[in-house]
Amino acid sequence: MGTTTPPRTLAEALRARGDESLAGLLRARPDLLNPVPNGITQLATRAGTRASVVRALEHLDRFALQTAEALAVAPDPAPYDTLLSLLTGDGLDDGDQRDDAGAAVTAALPGALATLREQALVWGEDDRLRLVRTARELLAPSPQHPSPTGLGPTVAEATAGMSPGRLQEILAATGLPATHDPVSAVAALSALFTDRTRMAELLDTAPVEALSVLDRLVWGPPYGEVTPNPTPPVKWLRDRGLLLPVSTRTVVLPREAALHLRAGRAHRVPEPVPPVVPAAAERDPQAVDRAAAGQAFTALSTVEELLKLWNGGGPAILRAGGLSVRELKRAATALDVSEPIAAFWIELAYGAGLLASDGETDERYAPTPASDEWLDLSAEDRWTHLATAWLAATRTPGLVGGQDAKGRALSALGPELDRSAAPDVRRRVLALFAELPPGTAPETESLLRRLRWERPLRGAAPAAESADLRSRLALWTLNEAELLGITGRGALSAQARALLDEGEGTAAARLAPLLPDPLDHVLLQADLTAVAPGPLERPLADTLSVLADVESKGGATVYRFTPGSVRRALDAGQAAADLHAFLAAHSRTPVPQPLSYLIDDVARRHGHLRIGAASAYVRCDDEAVLNEILADRRSTGLRLRRLAPTVLASQADPGSLLEALRDMGYAPAAESAEGDVLITRAGARRTPPRTPPVPVPEGPPVPDDTLLGAAVRAIRAGDTAATVVRKDTSDGPSSTTPSGALPRTTPAETLATVQAAAMTGSTVWIGYVNADGAASQRVIAPVRVEGGFVTAYDHTADEVRTYPLHRITGVAELAEDGKG
Question: How far apart are the first and last CA of the chain?
Answer without folding.
Answer: 11
